[in-house]
Write a structure and sequence with these properties.
Blueprint (H helix, E strand, L loop, with lengths): L10 H15 L8 H17 L4 H21 L11 E14 L4 E12 L2 E3 L4 E6 L11 E10 L12 H7 L2 E7 L6 E4 L7 H15 L6 H9 L7 H9 L10 H19 L5 H4 L2 H19 L4 H18 L6 H15 L7 H30 L11 H27 L2 E2 L2 H28 L3 H26 L5 E2 L6 H16 L3 H5 L1 H9 L11 E5 L7 E5 L4 E6 L9 H12 L4 E2 L1 E4 L4 H4 L2 H5 L3 E2 L2 E3 L13 E2 L5 E4 L2 E7 L14 E6 L2 E5 L5 H11 L7 E3 L11 H7 L3 E4 L12 H9 L4 E3 H4 L2 E5 L32
Parallel strand pairs: 4-6, 12-14, 13-15, 14-16, 16-17, 21-22, 22-23, 23-24
Antiparallel strand pairs: 1-2, 1-5, 2-3, 2-4, 5-6, 5-7, 8-9, 10-11, 10-25, 11-12, 18-19, 19-20, 20-21
Length: 807
């Protein structure tokens, strides 16, 4: 049989095929069975053997198979559900640099052995732990034996969220989270498995800056620039960087590594030329290239070898080899090679937002530089021998720099809106100011101080660091001024993927500048994104969303033209603020700019904790609270809610049913109870009321308590949901806000059985994610399960249908 070898494809095509297979696997909703993967590989191999032109198909299949094999092995390390919330003993080592806060220490721990009740279980691999006792004793590379309580790696699932913690944990191969129990049996097995490791050195410099410069407002940024540890940065710092589009400056990436490598090359070349005879044997350029490569690799190691630094190291290595071999690399081929190497080393990197930002930004820069070079060559042909000396004059360099900044702003806009639901309008200006100072002054000086510290001169290093902070402070004053502008950030509603793809086409047209008619249409491709608005509710319809915030409650009611927020979720000292991370992103994704009414049922932090974050972002027209004088920051703003208060919005009726009087001055039974009703159905929001309040409400309101949907009182505590109350409300569906395996054991088994006995479906956020009910003509029968988690696209999420819904 004749074998058709066909044409040979360039190596870059095969690399791109492999990368496409790895990236494509990221969008699968379920893993491919291993036997299917093997059969497909064999088939593709046979096709590739008979026809050269089809070899790319085999390489593509290899990328899919490699990712599928890695993900399958990782999913098999999930801890047994029987071990969750049990006291298990683990031994292993701390990896990376622990994050220290005033309340706890957080660190990643690689488990060697795991035992429970004397029986050994398979290791879950890497886990993430918090230690609330003796938090300062945990250091990098220590070996420990702990008693811990674990649960499977999970994150809150809410629409509009900018960060998916569950995806982050999977991408970092963390299969369980938990905390260290304060037990006498906890033992330090080895104070330092490798005292000369990179992690140990990163920890030393981070601790040194924390101890000696903790009073400096921006010491966290200095630590981030030197060793990539960003735990000491404040929320205000992050907000300014995000609003000015300069977050990349504190995330060590190709920009930083390229600048450091270039600076070292420049210094090495000039020093080597002073050696006389040596430079005749080894050219100064070779010494400079090798020195720059070593410097770049060392900086990447200090940064923890993140995705952007891995990409930068691969590209830097190829450029260095090309320079040593006197060859000129093709930029896009170089990028494809870096992409394939990064994906070969870790095929799960497409799960990280940093992967998309890093490679897309470099691709945009290459496009911009290529276009600038083409324009320069065109100008040179028009003005032969009229350009003195340098290829680029200062005005041309300035124009090129501006073109790259504008190109990044337009080219990255669709991706930034997809990932973060906002776009900094002042990013080009902010970067023009910040990049020269941070890149050419702060980073080199900070690394010089690092060298002094490593050589045993900490006092001199401290002096250098102080000057670096002065430079950072000057830049920071400018960034603060720019971020304060009301127009600095554009935050449109979450647009559908098709609108973002059309905008990407428009960005491409702006880049490649086709003939005028086609170039003019580039603006038109952006119009769906610019003018997109979520579909409005009809008159009399309303939408209720119970957000997943763990133990607590945060929910939003929307009518045709109004928005009501009922409770704001918890805030933990040194930890999560549901107002900032859940409620605010959701409201922005819905295109909401103003809160018509905020109701905080009562003063407990799991219901009122997010108030400050919400109030700092949105204008609140009217504020009701069960106990106004006990809510932090709200006593002078909030009005006490009392039974009988009512209003009408867009054909939807709202009425406060409780509290009736001042019998309950504070606590759970002082919760505002709100009934919402329209021709499409009714909803009863109960806060944390307990048995006494429920019985008094039944006596006062009787049948008026009846509602189609009930927010389960007090997260399913056994002190609430009394039989008399449920008999009066008679809900068709019950929604429960609770944390996964929460410490209170909510919902209590007695309560779950009570709802089941009455055939009331009980759906909780812990297993379902955010819950949404549309009270309109499409949902009058309420015969569906509003499960946000089930709609997630990703094989690494909890299996579909794995809920504890009670029927």
């Amino acid at each position: 049989m004749r074998i058709d070898r066909g044409v040979r494809l360039p190596a870059s095509i095969y690399l791109l095929a492999f990368s496409s297979g790895v990236i494509g696997h990221r969008f699968l909703d379920a893993l491919i069975p291993l036997w299917v993967t093997l059969v497909a590989l064999l088939f593709c191999a046979l096709v590739a053997y008979w026809k050269n032109a089809a070899r790319w198909v085999f390489v593509f299949a290899l990328g899919v198979a490699w990712t599928n094999f890695t993900a399958t092995n990782l999913l098999h390390t999930t801890i047994d559900s029987a071990l969750e919330k049990q006291d298990v003993v683990v031994s292993g080592k701390i990896v990376g640099v622990p994050v220290q806060t005033p309340r706890y220490s957080r660190f990643d721990f690689v488990v060697d052995t795991l035992t429970w009740q004397g029986k050994a279980y398979d290791s879950p691999g890497k886990i993430r732990l918090k230690a609330y006792h003796n938090a300062d004793v945990f250091k990098a590379n220590q070996a420990w034996r702990f008693t811990v309580r674990l649960k499977q790696a999970r994150g809150y699932q809410n629409p509009g969220s900018r960060f998916n913690y569950e995806t982050y944990l999977f991408e970092h191969r963390i299969r369980a989270t938990g905390y260290v129990r304060n037990e006498a049996s906890n033992r330090l097995l080895n104070p330092s498995l490798n005292k000369y490791s990179i992690s140990k050195f990163r920890e030393r410099i981070s601790t040194f800056i924390q101890i000696h410069m903790r009073d400096a407002p921006r010491h966290g940024i200095l630590t981030a620039l030197i060793v990539g540890v960003r735990g000491a940065m404040s929320d205000a710092d992050w907000r300014i960087l995000q609003n000015t589009g300069t977050i990349h400056l504190v995330a060590i990436s190709g920009l930083h590594i390229g600048l450091v490598s270039g600076l070292v090359m420049w210094v090495a070349a000039r020093v080597w030329r002073l050696t006389g005879q040596l430079q005749t044997r080894i050219p100064a350029q070779n010494v400079a290239v090798i020195s720059g490569l070593v410097a770049g690799c060392c900086y990447a190691l200090l940064a923890g070898m993140t995705i952007p630094t891995r990409r930068a190291v691969v590209m830097l290595s190829v450029v260095a080899i090309s320079m040593l071999l006197k060859r000129k690399p093709v930029p896009f081929e170089l990028l494809i090679l870096a992409l394939s190497v990064v994906l070969l080393v870790d095929p799960l990197t497409p799960l990280a937002t940093g992967f998309w930002l890093s490679f897309c930004a470099v691709a945009v820069i290459i496009c911009c530089v290529t276009k600038l070079n083409q324009n320069t060559r065109h100008e040179n042909t028009r003005h032969i021998n009229t350009r003195p000396g340098n290829k680029y004059s200062l005005p041309e360099k300035t124009k090129g720099w501006l073109s790259i900044q504008l190109g990044l702003s337009f080219g990255m806009a669709p991706l930034l809106l997809l990932l973060f639901h906002q776009l900094s309008l002042i990013a080009p200006l902010a970067n023009l100011v910040a990049i020269p100072v941070i890149g050419f002054v702060a980073v080199p000086a900070a690394l010089f101080g690092l060298c002094l510290f490593a050589l045993g001169f900490p006092e001199l290093a401290l002096v250098v660091f102080e000057y670096v902070l002065i430079a950072i402070d000057h830049v920071w004053s400018v960034l603060q001024f720019l971020a304060a502008a009301n127009w600095s950030v554009w935050q449109p509603p979450s647009a559908p993927i098709w609108a973002l793809m059309l905008a990407a086409v428009g960005a491409a047209l702006l880049f490649f500048r086709p003939p005028f008619p086609a170039r003019f249409t580039a603006v038109l491709w952006f119009l769906p994104l610019l003018f997109f608005q979520p579909e409005k509710l009809g008159h009399g319809a309303f939408k209720y969303t119970m957000l997943e915030v763990g133990h607590g409650l945060a929910s939003v009611v929307e009518t045709q033209n109004h928005t009501l927020v009922y409770d704001t979720g918890p805030k933990f000292n040194g930890g999560m603020d549901a107002g900032k991370t859940v409620v605010v992103p959701y409201l922005k994704s819905r295109g909401i700019r103003n809160i018509d009414k905020l109701i905080i049922s009562h003063e407990h932090s799991d219901h009122a904790g997010g108030y400050r974050a919400i109030n700092s972002v949105f204008n609140i027209d009217h504020f009701l609270a069960g106990v106004p004088d006990k809510i932090d920051g709200a006593p002078l703003l909030a009005e006490k809610c009392l039974g009988g208060q009512k209003w009408l919005w867009d054909g939807v009726r709202f009425e406060i049913l409780w509290p009736l009087n001042h019998d309950f001055a504070k606590g759970n039974n002082a919760s505002c109870v709100l009934k919402i009703s329209s021709r499409f159905g009714s909803l009863l929001l109960t806060g944390d009321i307990e048995g006494p309040a429920e019985r008094m409400m039944v006596a006062r309101h009787g049948e008026r308590l009846a509602a189609d949907i009930l927010q389960v009182p007090h997260q399913g505590s056994k002190t609430s949901s009394t039989t008399t109350f449920l008999s009066r409300v008679k809900p068709k569906l019950a929604l429960l806000s609770s944390g996964y395996l929460n410490q209170f054991g909510h919902p209590h088994q007695v309560i779950s059985e009570r709802y089941a006995l009455r055939q009331i479906p009980l759906i909780d956020t812990a297993h379902s994610g955010a819950l949404t009910i549309n009270f309109d003509h499409t949902q009058q029968q309420l015969n569906h399960r509003p499960n946000y988690r089930d709609g997630l696209n990703g094989y690494w999420f909890e299996p579909k249908g794995a809920t504890n819904n009670t029927l």
